[in-house]
Amino acid sequence: MKRGTKIHYKGAEYNEDGDRPVNLDSIPKIKSAKELQSAIDDPEMHFMHISEDKIYGINKLSFKQHKFLLLEPNPVTFYFSLAFDSVNQIEHAKVDLENTLNSIANDDHKAQAFSFVFRVGSVAIIFSFLALEAFLNQMLPDHGLIEYKGKMLSKDKIERFTPFTDKLNLIIPALSGKDFSQVYPSKVDKLESLKALRDKLTHLKEIKSGFTSYNQVYQDVLNTDLKSIVFTVKSFINFYSPELIENYKMTTKIK
User: Fold this and answer.
1) Is 214 within 8 Å of 67 (Cβ atoms)?
2) Whole-prediction pTM value?
């Protein structure tokens, strides 16, 4: 049985009569392993795979003594896979923490149980946000300028300087002609809360409350419905790019 998240590949829209013509006659034909090795070593040589409607880039990679080609996977699916895999662990971790608190446990046992919740919760929060942010950036056109607050900006400027909420609620709806926030307003609130919680975890600033520094962020991790947030990210991505995120069955059920 397959588990986790299906790997999808990053491609660009293509059709022979459209705006991405490819002259296949000019592409050199590789006829031997030696010619292939030479092509892999050549920095000017780029490989691609063409389907009926998309062009896919092929990565040239090396690992130890091996040089290999890899149809470029979409890292959005990698990031989301980590968040998705943590959902089942979160449920286990919270059950373990509850059982620990119901028993006569010392501070070390409670700390270990809470540590499990915090660790898998952090994975869910950080990597679901990374999947979302990477997807938003992929939605921006590589060529041409994007209108934002009366100015025409490049993709690079939008990626670097535009607030997350504006990309989420203004730019992507304008580019796609669809608006997730109008269809699912409550889900957008969850995505914005995800951004705030992710910022707290990655920066982890000390907020003094008596003699403690992290009481609020610890409480936030306990209070947040992380499963709901992870699946809201999936809902957002698939709203704009149907079936980009496909999950297999969860690993195990909680006893």
Assistant:
1) no
2) 0.84
